[in-house]
Amino acid sequence: MALDLASLLGRKNPPLFGLDISSLDIKLVELSEGSNKSYRLERYASEPLPKGAVLDGNIENIEQVTEAVRKLVKKSGTSAKNVAMAMPASAVITKKIILAGTLTEQALEVQVESEASQYIPFSMDEVSLDFCVLGPAANAEEDIEVMLAASRKEKIEDRVAVIQAAGLQAKVMDIESYAARAAVSRLIDQQANGGKDQIYAVFQVGSKRTYIFIILNGEVIYEREQQFGGAQLTQDIVRNYGLSAEEAEIKKKNGDLPDTYEMELLEPFLESAALEVTRAIQFFFTSTPYTRVDQIYLSGGCAVIPGLVDIIAERTKISTAVVSPFKGMELGSGVNEKTLRIDAPAYMVACGLALRRFG
């Protein structure tokens, strides 16, 4: 199965759900068409993974991950069989190239493969390659801008093997960062004037890494990854209070921990998180022509940690908000609105994948 940047564009598609496989768990989101051209969140759910089943985006134990997918599908109640998945950005090489607009489709494929071989440090036999025509090139109307994406076949095949073993069909292989952008872009479109000329910095705080991307008028003008995440706080909670990692995650979200937790563990973590965000913003200013950010959005499981929004807003002096990828959507009968408020920020990638049903 090739990497597929645009396989669902412009087609009417049967039900499909987004499946986000991370080191800690698997998340599922299924959307349908709501009223007035809106979306409806039919269902969402997650299933924890055994430690070591997925490491740094690589599936290390196909059987354990397959079993978790089976449990998750059953728990969610979905009857859909088509799945959109994603590779971690670190496992995919992407490159924008300019090609002649007069090329036939067949000639374009040949040219893309030829160009790709210059940027990919592996034999082309070991790689799954796909491309998407973005539109006319900025400085030459007769040329086109093409995005190519490539990943090691074995990494894609591991994900596909899991899906097939669980009795499902892998329809789309996206890139995690692209899926997150798709979900955020929908939210920005809801802002006054569609967020025109506003600079949005999105911090997707994962367990071990924080992925940062900055958007202006629909274009990503900056992105990077930092080695920082919520796993550190979880590990501190496990060590200090003798809890399992799963218990620690739950109690971290709802604040159900001893009185000493705030001063001993939470405050140092919040200070550290605020410092990481401030550094990232400063790095953006020093490495680009831009000198402002209008809005910070926080997503990922850590985004809902009490006090995080306030300390980041205070230290950066920038408006900061936790962002729900489901904002403005209708909710299915089985979705608990109260629980969703806590869970939603962690489902950015899964939601972006689920949106691939609609193109």
From TrEMBL:
Any single Pfam family the record assigns to this protein: PilM_2
Domain SHS2: 16-184
Gene3D superfamilies referenced in this protein's UniProt entry, alphabetically: 3.30.1490.300, 3.30.420.40
GO BP term, pick one: cell division
Protein name: Type IV pilus assembly protein PilM
